[in-house]
């Protein structure tokens, strides 16, 4: 009898301890200052924001969406992150689905940071309504896909300032290490000299990228929603991926400088072309047997024509820049998305290449015509400034100048950059403000992309 009573007592103590621990965990969660609201997560980037946990973010995430495959795909990815063997996340998703999901979200206001990554046709409106309701917004690019969207986005920034909330877009490419180091080296006059002005035929800054509709994400073939192939919903290439490239031009050439889109940007020429997709390719990437009605306007002889390719030539504060993006269906075996970038200085060019010779991994080079011992010594001395910030990087001499040798620890991959952006945004939320240059430069960026599209369409 005594043994039985002892067992009951021990069980009671364990239950009490468990209850106390659970209450302690719940209390810790309730103290966390940030809580996510995910709205209409139609793009896999919505899930990538949650690939990691964050110290200041509640584990309960409130999801508002229309019912269908998009929200299911998002929840499936979150479940995989929660159940992976290494460093599993522990998100708890509370989901509301219905045609009134946005009104319901604003009425409930169950969090304070809205995450938007989905159909771009609706995104600018979602942004505006969220900041109008006094909610912070972290939005995937692009935040606007046409001139009308740009006007609404400007209104959203005005509303965000009035309501003391932060509106920010997810610029992952700033965290790719070769882009980061290219910017750092351009700040060193002993290595780079001064940024050249260039000409329309020989721009000083060039950013080019090649992307693919069919790819693998988190080790699995990516299934894209059918609407992704409708430029009226996703946006043309000129206003989609080029957002990253235009951002890098601004961020690298004029770091921490506030730009005035009315004075500093001059569009010179633009062009747009279509990528052709066959019905079998469409099925492979969407799992859909037929084109939906909204895509039939873009179909010729069963081939889908998507205006996903764009090029724009412009000047930014007098510096000639060229930005271009190409979408192919699938990368050849052993390859992937590629990026090329050059910044031309009076002493050297800073070039990122990602081709066959680089084994399709981005590599940064310093290339110069100055082969003097004095310049070589100046480069070695000045490079130490960057080495102090990024320990382990080295200069590797070659015929044209130097290759930057970068330790593997800095190459954490595209998916990890979403957490880096989110952490930076959370720092800004703690401070209660963005850097002074961020908002004018986001406005300048979306002006550039949406006006380039308008110009290219008018030209046609």
UniProtKB/TrEMBL annotation:
Domain Gfo/Idh/MocA-like oxidoreductase N-terminal: from-to ranges: 83-162
Keyword ATP-binding: no
Limits of the Putative oxidoreductase C-terminal domain: 181-457
SUPFAM superfamilies hit by this protein: NAD(P)-binding Rossmann-fold domains
Alphabetical UniProt keywords: Oxidoreductase
GO molecular function, one term: oxidoreductase activity
A Pfam family it matches: Oxidoreduct_C
Domain of life (superkingdom): Bacteria
InterPro entries, per database record: Gfo/Idh/MocA-like_OxRdtase_N, Gfo/Idh/MocA_oxidrdct_glycsds, NAD(P)-bd_dom_sf, Oxidoreduct_C
Protein name per UniProt: Oxidoreductase
